Amino acid sequence: MKKFLLLLAVLPLFIANSYSQASFGTGTITVEVDEYGGIALLSADDVYQLYRAAILVGTTPEAVFDYKNDADVQDPTILVTNPTSSDFEIYGAYNNAYSGLPPDVIVKLNAYGWNNGAYTVVKFNIQNTASTAIDALAGLDIIPYLNEEYGFDSVSYNSTAGVIRFHRGAHVNMGMKLLSATMTSLYSFEWYDNYEVDTDYWNWMTTGELQPLYASPTADGPVTITSQGPVALASGQTFNVYYALALGANEQAMLANISSAVEKYQTLITSVDNIKPSANVFNLGQNYPNPFKNSTEISYQLPDDGFVSLKVYDVMGNEVAALVNSIQTKGSHSVHYNANGLSSGVYYYTIRFNDQVKTNKMLLIK
To answer: Which of 26, 210, 277, 361 is the most buried (most CB within 10 A)?
Structure first.
């Protein structure tokens, strides 16, 4: 039985809130993200519908990053003040320090919400922090909790809409859709204690099939695993994975909310992912998040191969960090900057490429 999960679910509200590291309410949905990046959803009546969705990153059958065995805090999970791309935003970053086992990755999570929207768009930025290249599979580990109950619910796949539907009788419907890639595997099974094993995760992420329907036969309920195709990542490189999560009183309402989330996603990738890999220009993006507490990401675009220098300066013009000083290839690049040891304040980062120079400002708040 799901004794541990059930215990968490039935604890008084003030304890449940302590489990959530950061949350926001849009008026029709509440989104919670815990200390290690687990995402929960509540309907407008403050009833849980999703116990947890968490990122999976797999590179081999023996190396899958997951919530229970690997995730540790890289940057604390926080509610972003004055978000620029949505009405609400949660940010956090998570590494594999808890286990110290491969794959060596940092996953940055941004959950976006909009007033009166019964949906959220979640961005996972996955960085290879190993010294060698990897082929990374990315997916979700999903435990539904419809109407704060486990068991006897169904997981069905709407191939036309590309939406995973979680439903049970007349209760609220929950939907999820992979937005940024093509889903290659979808598999559900009945929950059991300590199912979180790398080789099993890998097998579920590499079925190569999209299970059309799973009907839970017990009170334990389903676990659903998703995945997309592998992404080749050199050391230090990143890629983004976007999912839409939505609730609705029925299937039709849930699908309508997924469609609204897709529209927001189209706007979001224009504002957040402001450097396009195909752009044949020299560009320096705004660091994200900004302001930031401990670490941030700096992205830039190179029109050709060439020598790149990327440095950080304080307001007096003193160099405080040299992030890049090497020949790099044409295309999009990003650098993770950890500002440990620096005091709060304004800093500038400057990139030099051939005879071109660009500078942006960032704000460190501790």
So the answer is: 26
In whole angstroms, what is the distance from residue 134 CA to residue 130 CA?
8
Contact call for residues 241 and 135 (beta carbons, < 8 A): no
> What's the pLDDT at 271?
63
Does the structure show a pLDDT above 60 at 275? no
Tell me if 248 sits within 8 A of 273, measured CB to CB.
no
Given a contact cutoff of 8 angstroms between Cβ atoms, the answer to whether 9 and 32 are in contact is no
Phi, psi of 7 (to 5 degrees): -60, -45
Alpha-carbon torsion 264, 270, 276, 279, what sign? positive
What six digits make up the tokens of 363? 């704000």
Sheet holding 306-314, edge to edge: 319-328, 306-314, 345-353, 356-364
Sort strands 183-190 and 222-228 into parallel, antiparallel or unpaired.
Answer: antiparallel
Tens digits of per-residue pLDDT, 303-337? 888 899 999 998 888 899 999 988 888 888 888 88
Separation of alpha carbons 236 and 70, rounded Å? 19
Please tell me whether residue 95 adopts helix, strand or coil conformation: strand
**What is the per-residue pLDDT for 16?**
41
Res. 228: pLDDT tops 60? yes
How does pLDDT run across 181-211, given as a tens digit for each residue? Answer: 889 999 999 999 999 999 999 999 999 999 9
Question: Which residue, among 241, 234, 185, 180, has the nearest Cα to 209 in the 3D structure?
Answer: 185
205 in Cβ contact with 227 (< 8 Å): yes
Give the CA count within 13 Å in the CB-facing half-sphere of 233: 29
Identify the structural domains of the chain with CATH numbers, from first to last: 3-271 (2.70.98.10), 283-364 (2.60.40.2550)
